[in-house]
Amino acid sequence: MRAERFTSTEQKTAIAITTRDGDDLTRQGRYSLSSILENVPGVTGGAAENANGAITGGTDNPAAGLTIRGIQSNVGTGGSVTSTSSSAAIYVDGVYNGIGSTYDISQVEVLRGPQGTLYGRSATSGVVVINTRNPDLNHYGADGLVNVGSYDMVQASAAVNIPIIDDKLAVRISGNHYERDGYDAALGGRVQTDDARIKLLYKPTETFSALLGAALQYNKVNSGGTAYDQTSPGVFEKNDNAQATDIGTGKNHFFQFWGEFNLDLGAVNLTYLPAYKTWNQNTLGVSRGTAPEFNQYINTPVDNFLTQELRLSSDNDSKLKWQGGLFYYYNNLRNTNELAVYPTDSLVYRSETHKRTQNIGAFGEATYSFTDTTRVTAGLRYDYTRVRNEQVYTVPNDTGDGVLVGTLSGDEGLKTFKNVTYKARIEHDLSPVNLLYASISTGFSPGDVAITTNEEHKPETVVLDDQTLTSYEIGSKNRFLGNRLQVNAALYYNNYGGFQTAGINTTPNDPANATFNTIVAPVKVYGAELEIIAKPWHNGQVGVNAAYTHARYDGIPEEYAFLFSTNKIDGVAPVQATAWVEQRTDLTDNVTLTGRAEGIYRSAFNAARITVAEAALGAEAFVRNSDTFIANLSATLAFKDSGLAITGYVRNVGDVRYLTNPGIRDVGTTGFTSSSVVRSDPRTWGVSVTARF
After folding, report:
1. In this structure, what is the dihedral angle of CA atoms 675, 680, 684, 690, given to the nearest 10 degrees?
2. Terminal C-alpha separation, the chain
3. What pTM, to 2 d.p., does this model score?
4. Which of 136, 220, 400, 545 could form a disulfide with 192 if both were Cys (CB 3.0 to 4.6 A apart)?
5. Which residues contact 403 (CB under 8 A, 6 or more apart)?
6. pLDDT interval class at 106 (50, 70, 90)
7. Which domains does the chain have, with CATH numbers?
8. How far apart are the C-alpha atoms of 237 and 221, rounded to whole Å?
9. Hey, what's the torsion of the CAs at 133, 138, 139, 140, to 10 degrees?
C-alpha cells in the first residue's frame, strides 16, 4: 500500500483508510465504482458517467459522483459550469481523474479527509486511489473475464503481459467491454462502455524506471423510455406520458496518455508524472412524465486536461521521512448546454461556454520519529488557481417574443484564487500492533465564475468563493489475538467555511422556467467510523464496518432559507453498517470453494431537499427513505493449477429499491398528488468465469 506515497501497510498508516484487493472485488461481482465502494464506511456513490446538466447529471469530473463523510462532490449548475473542482478526487495510476478504473485492478485505496499535502490537486473530503496492474518484467501472462447476468448484462475483459527484454522491458495490454439494459426500461436506461489500455514498463537499472501508458474509453448512456410517479408514499406507478420511444442518448469518449518516471538518487527519490486527457461529448437528455417535460442538448467538442507532477521524497526507512512536490493543472473547455420544453422545443436557457482553468500547487509533508514509538507529521500546501470564463447565456424575455442575452468576458470573467492549507498529526505506538493518532488538517476547492439565471429569469453572473474545510480526527488501529482480530476506529469533526450546493432550482413555483443556481452555506459534519475484521476459525473471516454521519447546514443564506425545510444535508444516511462472513473450503488439493454473505444497512434519510412550503403540505413522506437492508451473496469455485475460477453472485437479494433522486410534482394548496422518482438498483445476478495464465 502506498497511500502516503511510502510503502506501508493499512495498519501502520495513521489516517482513516480502507483498502480493497482487485481479485477480491472480482470474486464478489463488483465491477462498477459504486459497487466497489458500497461497503466502505463513510462513502457512497461512484463515478459520474454523464455530463453536467439538469437532466443528465454528472460531469467530466468522475469524482462528482462521490459522497465522502456526508459531503457530496460539487457539480455545475444547470446551464452553466459554475464549479468543476469536486470535493473528492479520484486517482487512477497516479493520474488525477484518470480513466479505466473498473477493470484489471490491482488495489483500491480510499483515504477519508483532506489530502492536499499528499496528492497533486487538493481534495477536501477525500481521495480514491485506484491502481491497475502494471507490466511484469519477468513472466508471460494473460487474464480473461466473461461475465453475464440479469438485464442482458454482458462483460468481457482481457489482459496480456509480455516481457520483451527480461528484467528490463515489458508491456501489458488490457481491454474491457460492458453493457446492460436499463432497470426500468430496457432501452431507456441502457449503458455501454468500451475500454482499452496499454502500459509499457522500462527498467534499465535498479535505480531508474519509466512507465508509459495510453488508454481510451467510450461511453453510451440512455435516458428516458419510462418514468415513475410516487402516487402515495411508497406506491410507484408508471407515468403514461413517458413513452418507450422517448429515448435520449448520451455519448462521450476519453483519450489519455501518461507516464511515471522514477529515479533513485540514493537518499532522495525523484518522480515525474505527466498526463494528458481529452473528453468529448454529445448528449440528448429527455425528461418525460414531469410538468413540463424537457429535452436537454449538451455538446462538448473540446475538453482537454494537462497535468504534470514533480515530486521528491526521502528514503522509505529514513528517520525523517519527507516528500514535496509541484503540481500543474490546465483545462480547456468548450461546451454548449441547452434546455428546451418538449414538444414545442421552446427555449428555457442556452449556455455557450469557453472556460480555461489553471492551477499550480506546491505541497509537502514530513514525518519525524522522536522515538521508535512516537512520530509527528507536518504538511503545508499552497495553491494558485486562475479561471477565465467566456460565456454567452440566453433566456426568453418576459413576453416570450424575444430573448435576453448575458455575456461574460474580459476582466469580469477572470478570477484568481489563492489558498494555503496544512496538516499536523501525532501518532504513538502503544505496542507493535496498537496505534493511536490525532490530526488537524485543512482543505479547499477553488471558486468559480459563470452566468446562470436569477430568480427573475434573467442572466446573472455568479462568483463563488473558495470552499474551505478544517478537519479534526482522532483514531486507533489495533491487532489482537495474534493478528486474528483487527479493530480500527476514528472520530472526526469537519467545519466547512462555505459548501457549494449546486443544481438547486431557486424558482420552484415556476417549473416551466426553472432557475438552477449554486447556494453557498457553511456546513458542519461530525461522525465516527469503525472497521472490524476477525478470523475466528480455519479459513473463515467475519467483518463489520459502520459509520455515523451527522451532516448539517450551519447558516443557510436568508434569501434562500425558504428552499430548505431542514438543515439536514439530503442524501446522507446517519447510520451505515455492513456485516459479512466469508468461508473457504478446500474440496481437493486443487479445488477450493469460497462463499461470502454480506448485509448492508442504512438508516432512514431524506433522498432530496424540499422547500418549506412543500414540507408544510406533507412532501417529506415522498422523499423519505425508511431503514433499508440489502443482502449480497457470492460463491467462487477456483481451480488452482489451471488459474480458472467460476463465480456466481446475487446483489440486492431482497430486491430493495430506495429513492435516489425524487422530485416533487403537482403541488396544490392542500397537498400534492405525486412525485417523479429515480430508484436504486434492483436485484441483479451474474455468473463470471475468470482465467489467469
Report:
1. 150
2. 25
3. 0.90
4. 220
5. 347, 394, 395, 396, 397
6. very high
7. 141-692 (2.40.170.20)
8. 24
9. 90
